[in-house]
């Protein structure tokens, strides 16, 4: 499974369980440990754990490996290590406090939209244009 497919699988799993504020960051220039960081919010301990388990199950079902999962005991911040992509699922107050977006820095990755989503994108924003590269 290539990087884009793995990232899409993770994002789709998060969206299926109604994650809030999903963001993807390219970390290739920052670390050699992984290439993407996906950050999402859940509204409660239960939802945060459910989001992480959904990511884990979807990645395994797609034939990729989940190297580890941490934080599911409290559910405030659950990390799912999928090798080249690391997924952080946090409650909003924890996400605000740690501000991972600032740590992993700046350049958010926009995935190529599926055809069915193209009509809902904001074409006036260059990064959202349907023909923009991911």
Automatic annotation (TrEMBL):
Gene3D superfamilies: Beta Polymerase, domain 2. Belongs to the Iojap/RsfS family. Its main location: cytoplasm. Functions as a ribosomal silencing factor. Interacts with ribosomal protein uL14 (rplN), blocking formation of intersubunit bridge B8. Prevents association of the 30S and 50S ribosomal subunits and the formation of functional ribosomes, thus repressing translation. PANTHER family: IOJAP SUPERFAMILY ORTHOLOG, MITOCHONDRIAL ASSEMBLY OF RIBOSOMAL LARGE SUBUNIT PROTEIN 1. Interacts with ribosomal protein uL14 (rplN). Transmembrane segments: none annotated. Keywords: Cytoplasm, Repressor, Translation regulation. It comes from Sutterella massiliensis. It comes from the Bacteria. This is Ribosomal silencing factor RsfS. The keyword Flavoprotein does not apply. InterPro entries: Iojap/RsfS/C7orf30, NT_sf. It is found in: Cytoplasm.
């Amino acid at each position: 499974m290539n990087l884009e497919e793995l990232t899409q699988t993770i994002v789709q799993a998060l969206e299926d369980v109604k994650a809030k504020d999903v963001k993807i960051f390219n970390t290739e220039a920052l670390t050699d440990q992984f290439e993407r960081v996906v950050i999402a919010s859940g509204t409660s301990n239960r939802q945060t754990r459910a989001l992480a388990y959904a990511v884990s199950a979807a990645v395994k079902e797609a034939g990729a490996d989940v190297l580890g999962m941490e934080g599911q005991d409290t559910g405030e911040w659950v990390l799912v290590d999928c090798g080249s992509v690391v997924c952080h699922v946090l409650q909003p107050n924890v996400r605000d406090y740690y501000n991972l977006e600032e740590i992993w820095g700046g350049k958010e990755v926009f995935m190529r939209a599926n055809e069915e989503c193209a009509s809902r994108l904001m074409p006036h924003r260059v990064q959202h244009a349907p023909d923009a590269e991911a």
